[in-house]
Amino acid sequence: MFIFTPRQIENNNWVIISPLISVIFTIIIGAFIFKILNYPVLESLYQVFVSPFSRPDRIADIFVKACPLIIIGIGLIFCFRANIWNIGAEGQFIFGTLCAGSFALLFPDNENKFILVLMFFVGFLGGAIWGSIPAILKIKLNVNEILVSLMLVYIAMLFIDYIVRGPLRDPMSFGFPLSKPYPDGAIISKIHFPGIGFLGQLHYGILSIFVLAPLAWFLINRTLPGFQIKVFGSAPKASNFAGFNKNKITFVVLALSGGMAGIAGVIEVSANMGKLQPEVSFGYGFTAIIVAFLGRLNPYGVIFAGVIIATAKLGADNAQMILGIPKVVTGIFEGVLLFFLLAGETIQNYKISFKRKT
Amino acid sequence: MENLLITILLTSIPILLAGTGELISEKSGILNLGVEGMMLTGAVSALGSVLILGNPYAGIFFGALAGILISFIFSFFTISLMTNQVATGLGLTIFATGLTGLIGEPFVGKTIPSLPKIEIIFFSEIPFLGAIFFKQDILFYIAISMIVLVHFFLIKSRFGIVLRAVGDNHESAHSIGYPVKKIRWICTAFGGMCAGMGGAYIPLVLTPHWSEGMTAGKGWIALALVVFASWLPFRLLLGALIFGGITILQFVGQARGWPFPSQFLNMLPYLVTIIALSLISIKTRAGNIYVPSCLGKSFFENN
Amino acid sequence: MLLHIMVNLNSKILLKANNITKKFGNFVANNSIDLEIKKGEIHALLGENGAGKSTLVKMFYGLLLPDEGEIFLNEKAVSITNPKLARYFGIGMVFQHFSLFPALTVTENILISLDKNFSKKELENKISDISKKWGLSIKPSKKVNELSVGEQQRVEIIRCLLQNPKILIMDEPTSVLSPQEIKNLFKVLKNLSNSGCSILYISHKLNEIKEIAKTVTILKTGQVIDTLDTKNVSTKILAEKMVGKKVVKLKTKRSFTKTKQKVALLVNNLSRTKKNLFGVSLNNINIFLNYGEILGIAGIAGNGQVELMEALSGETTGIKEEIMFEGKPIGDCKIDFRRRLGMEFVPEERNNHATVSDFKLNENTFLTFFGRYNINESFIKKMMTSANYSYEDSIEIIKKNDVRCPHENPMAKQLSGGNLQKFIIGRSFQSNPKLVIISQPTWGVDIGAATSIRQQIINLSQNQKAIILISQDLDEIFELSDKISVISNGHLSKIKNKQNISPTEVGLLMGKN
Question: For chain B, which domains are there?
């Protein structure tokens, strides 16, 4: 029989150790799955976890892939710290993208990069609006935000589908459900390294991470609103005792994380697609949940977590091409990783010992 | 008209089954957000087993079994290791989406025979109602009778009362000697079994071939259904029928050429879920006696 | 064989604990405890919070297993591995925090705690038989959340009696009862003991133990200090044995200077409808409080104390004129605003209400201090304050109030109950408030800390501050208060001077519904 004894003293190193152990355990489980399914184990692991590092342009692409995950993940930190379960970042991403994209398409053939600046605002606003729907329902009617935010993902997916097949469809698209291409002013360009040229798809949008992460860290750790969010998440009664407004906190974290998802969408689409299409997100909003947890709800941690997960995503693409392993396998890794991370929290809070039943 | 009603009924069976299972596990205090994942697992297992064994009844068995097995993952983490139930349930759905995608890959493009209809003699002769209620498949009968059974089980039986007690106050249940964790394992497994069967129903009756993520949010709607039903079995049935009706509306709309874009009709089940949750919240804002007080809370046993 | 039975029949010792030791991790909760309970005896177990009383009886009831030592029933060694087995052996237990299910009916509650199966009808008859026999009236069809605390305890007792126990364990049974209810309980217990049932009575209240128990065993830090006959020992000696040192008496005040009293707080017809099924509505509460006075509000738990505290503190708000502080209407102001006016609050729940358990002490200081930094700066500057600003204030509170910490800046959950309470009260006194409202200040706190907390309250009042003391502990109310009132089912009785009200009267008001 296992005995759990609550720990009195916090183990500070565990914050870093536990995600590392979780990743290692996940890889081990992955090896088992490959073994069971009769894929070559080492080769598969190599493709998934190492091959993305094999060339500079591939490494660059890891960051491109990680970019939306990290930005959404940073936004989700605020929700999860406040113990608000926003699992609809996918929908907020889509709606933010849709708003920003529609805005950009108002200015055909315009090269003014000011459009892009405004798109960030519009995208943020769109995501924030989508995120504030569950917030308002929770505040006014005490409706569970988990289910509402998730339902809104499906609605957003269908909505963008309607828009690009209907009102915004490009008449020149030969029947494909695509919008017209964005004007040049709405495009985020690729980074040109002097002497080297382009590195994969690496674009200037990446730089936003290095602004957003420190900003988020500062907000959480050095400001009163950040403190309020943490108190509310840990002990809502204490938050009320302090005099913090729980409705305000709920609204702000949901709108903020929605807005961040919107920004992620703007960057993703402006840099990589340059137009609207039915599928603008490939589950980024869901994967970012794992990223936020793997990053231990710390903005800098989320950067590392985003890179790790993006690596596995790109690796899975390679594995599919070379070994024929369906790339949905990353979903398995993500789930297992989350399980281990959560178990790590148990180990952090309890000392576990074994005792013979008498 | 008859056919329309039958279609509505059949469409509501997956969420009804999954909702019934989730109701039991929530009554014991376990909030399992992995319903969607468990349904997918049930669906792919049912489909696979029918493809291999050729018998649609095998699909029910293996769908249920797979649901139980995958619920053990959830129970191990949330009950034994006391992890956060929301996050773990989410993880289960993500995990199962990947796993079923992988398992289902070889099944793509293959079609399975559907569950045979069983006529119940005498009753099936009743005009109109007979054809609707007594000429259906076995899972249909199971789902409907399950609602009745669960209702009486919760109110009348001793184990039903114990189960509610565990969800109401796990500390008390523990201190008068009930094995809280064991009871929750069983209830979660029941939830898994029902979700597995609900998932199995989709390929076995509704769409006889595999596509990735074919449950399309039905698991989440089942979760909402339990809230909407205020944890009462018969209201669950009512709610499932409403959702069945709304889901069917999109096909009706398309068939009759209603002047709405199909996307908006497809949105309806999700929109209605949000509206239903809001309405029920207005009604029960003052507190609802049926909400299990320990829902979502981990039980820590100090020994 | 025959001889063996004879011994059993003649044996007067019903339950015996031999050398029982129980550890949780490195913490030794029970250290080689010996205890003997005779047949039909009321045996008290006396000790402070954390002395190990609950741990010990949980082993008798099969909820915990001893690491070492043996338990004997009728001189036979038994291993009680679960409560079901304990009940089979004839051991019943009434828990301090009850082990009931609020959403279930009385009958359902009792049904699932019996090991034999009954139909609901049969059981309802049995319940009414038992309740008539022992004078424990109860309505079987009611849901437990509709019952008063006293009634809930009756359900627990009936539940045990239905199993014909040989020994009944009662864990702090009087802490939630009015004096009249206590009297009734004692009658039942004495009748039970006369009918041959032993009772193990756990308490930290000395008078009660002298009144009801024949023998008393004193526990301290997990060890048996002494076992005595209650007839031959004074409460003073009991107290000293329990605490392990001389008990310090309060330096009570106070020459009551009736000169220039100023009104601090006025509450006019304060009403609040309950927020949920488990709450209590407040009805037309009126309070009048001068500076330099302590108003004691007595009452049994769950009669609206929590709601009253929330309304007075501003955790819930209402109509402007309901509450006047120094003549200023503040009924619609939130708690942080009231703090700025010089009011401070100490709620009953220390963990995750007055403090955040997982937060460090400087963060917990910031929890109520956040409005004091960068006051005259811009809004942005005010927002850019964090718990780092509270570090020095936190250290000062710890020093001033003798809060014992494992290290300089521990998390709240690492402090003992008494030390955490000293921190919380110190935090609220740190700002030199004009009015303090304190709820259950010494609940679950060891005697040393309790004495120093009470002394602090008296000192504060000596400095012409206004204080409202909400407490279940009648002794505490009478020891500290100048004026007394009773809260019962959301009603507050008329405030009277201490000289004009007797404990009996207060007791009657507590029981009024």
Answer: 2-113+130-283 (1.10.3470.10)
Task: Check if C2-243 and C263-342+433-513 are the same fold.
Answer: yes
pLDDT tens track of chain C, all 513 residues?
Answer: 444 444 444 458 899 999 999 988 778 899 999 999 999 999 999 988 778 898 999 999 999 999 999 999 988 999 999 999 999 999 999 988 888 998 999 999 999 988 888 888 889 999 998 888 888 888 888 999 888 888 888 999 999 999 889 999 999 888 778 888 888 899 999 999 999 999 999 988 888 899 999 999 999 888 999 999 988 888 888 888 888 776 666 776 665 555 557 889 999 999 998 877 778 899 999 999 999 999 999 998 888 999 999 999 999 999 999 999 999 999 999 999 999 999 999 999 999 999 999 999 999 999 999 988 888 888 888 889 999 999 999 999 999 998 988 888 999 988 888 899 999 999 999 989 999 999 999 988 888 888 889 999 999 999 899 999 999 888 899 999 999 999 998 999 999 999 999 888 888 888 765
Q: Record the tokens describing residue B32, joined without a space.
A: 């399992």
Pick A231's closest partner by Cβ from C356, C383, C388.
C356
Q: ipTM score here?
A: 0.91
CA-nearest of B197, B170, B172, B264 to B19 is B197
Is B164 an interface residue toward C (CB < 8 Å)? yes
Predicted model pTM: 0.91
CATH of domain A56-330: 1.10.3470
**Which C positions 329-368 lie with beta carbon below 8 A of chain A?**
334-337, 339, 345, 347, 349, 352-359, 363, 366-368
Q: Which of A9, A224, A228, A248 to mutate: most C Cβ within 10 Å?
A: A224
Mutation test of the interface with chain C: which of A5, A241, A244, A356, choosing the one with the most C Cβ atoms within 10 A? A241
Is residue C508 within 8 Å of residue C501, measured between CB atoms? no
Domain chopping of chain C, boundaries: 2-243, 263-342+433-513, 353-432
Cβ atoms of C362 and C389 within 8 Å: the answer is no
Q: Do B102 and A293 touch (CB under 8 A)?
A: no
Query: Cβ–Cβ of B161/C87 closer than 8 Å?
Result: no
CATH number of C2-243: 3.40.50.300
Q: Which residues of C touch B281 (CB under 8 A)?
A: none
Best of B152, B156, B162, B175 to substitute, by most chain C Cβ atoms within 10 angstroms, is B175
Interface of B with A in 62-91 (CB under 8 A): 73, 77, 80-84, 86-88, 90-91
Length of chain C: 513
**Alpha carbons A349 and A10: distance in angstroms, whole number:** 8
- Can you state the angle between helices C447-462 and C235-243, rounded to 10 degrees? 110
| Nearest-by-CA chain B residue for A2 | B80
List the single residue in B with minimal CA-CA distance to C100.
B172
Residue A41 structure tokens: 């184990």
Whether A231 has its CB under 8 Å from any CB of chain C: the answer is yes
Domain C263-342+433-513, second-level architecture: 3-Layer(aba) Sandwich (3.40)
Helix (H) or strand (E) holding A124: helix A114-141
Contacts of A28 (CB under 8 A, 6+ apart): none
> Hey, where are the domains in chain A?
56-330
Distances C355 to A323, C424, C469 between C-alpha atoms, Å: 56, 8, 20
Contact C101 B169 (CB under 8 A): yes
For residue A12, give the nearest of C360, B79, C367, C362 by alpha carbon.
Answer: C360
